[in-house]
Amino acid sequence: MDLLNDSVKNLYFRYLFPSMGSAVVASVYLMTDAVVIGKGIGDNALAALNMTTPIISFMLSIGILFGIGGSVLFSVHKGTGDDEKANKCFTTALLGVLTAAIIICVLFNIFDKQILSLMGAKDELFDLAFDYVRFYYYFAIPSVLVNFCSAFVRSDKDPNRAMIAVTAGGIVNVVFDIVLVYPAQMGMAGAAIASVSGITVQWLVCLTHFLSKKNTIRISKPIKVLKNTFQILKGGLSGFITELSNAIIIFVFNLQLLNYCSNAELAVYGVLANCAILFNALFVGVGQAVQPVSAFNFGAGQNGRIAKLRKYAYSTVLIMGVVFALSGILFPELVASCFIDLTDATREVTKTAMPIYFIAFFAMGVNVLSTYYFQSLMKGGYSLAVSMLRNIIISSVLLITLPMLFGGFAIWFAIPITEAVVAVISFILLIKNNKQMKSKV
Q1: Structurally, how many domains does the chain consist of?
Q2: Residue 1 is assigned to a structural domain of this protein
Q3: Higher confidence at residue 294 or residue 270?
Q4: Which of 93, 109, 157, 314 is the most exposed place for a label (fewest CB within 10 A)?
Q5: Where are the bilayer-spanning segments (predicted)?
């Protein structure tokens, strides 16, 4: 495919379908984990799974930090026709992510229980959570590298392979989930083995790209390693924070629910958190479809083509956001019952909390896409601002202050307010960036 001359609409959909396909498959097996654990093991097991999410998200986010940051620079240099610089960016990013993966593997296996305790897990929830997360400690290296490899495979014009990789991993995960949790009765350990097996298969399939005829990436002796590593980290930081946001928000949410609410609220939040992860993955799929095409054309100075691409992408996430939000607002009990067997207590929480929380999905897609779009235009400051405000600053402040001021129930309003405020900021930054781009035409 020719990223500079082919129809923008055709390029968008050629990247969108594999990216969305990957996101759908990944989301299906994320949901399968939650459903199998919630239905096959119980409410406490789903709450325990929620306790492990920050740890797992951190591992996956490190791969995104180096993968997105490195692949954007790779695509920009490819757009300018400088293949040597592109390959040096890949090599620098590879060295960085391998170093990080080894360090994480060693530290997480040494301080396994201490790390889980920091997430607030204790008593029965600790035992269930540790039985699950310890397998991620063993498989830390593929867990870190899988998103790194996927990012470069997409940027090297092979999005279909990235989709095949996720599909293969998803099939392994779903089959193992069902077999190991139900007939084998392996509980949380079985669900964890299914998950890390799926991740490992996905990583191995992605690696086949580097042995294929489509591969244009080469190992090249890096220069100015510290400077280029800083550029990679700067470019990937907002993507890292976006992916890690679920972990940060879930961590704070869990602590606040433990302080102000009952186990029923904690169980229902397990459902909401998994829905948020699912919808976030789909929005990220749109962002990943945009990024290689936008970065390549940015490197070549094709601002008109970028404007067309932006129109298609934002229209897509707005439509998706409406559908996602209405599903929980109109059918809260139906959505919750897919994950857990509702009791009187959890049913009451579901009917009141879920419609409020799901309002957030109207705006979430705009905010997630904006981080990827700004990254592709080397607007790291804009991308970082959106990520930090959405995922750490505004959300954390509201999660802490709302229940203090208005009681435990107010916690459910924190995320919808955050997404709405950040969407306004994203819109302002988009207008400002568009004016800058037009002034350069």
Answers
A1: 1
A2: no
A3: 294
A4: 109
A5: 12-31, 51-77, 89-111, 135-153, 162-182, 188-211, 232-254, 266-291, 312-332, 352-374, 381-403, 409-431
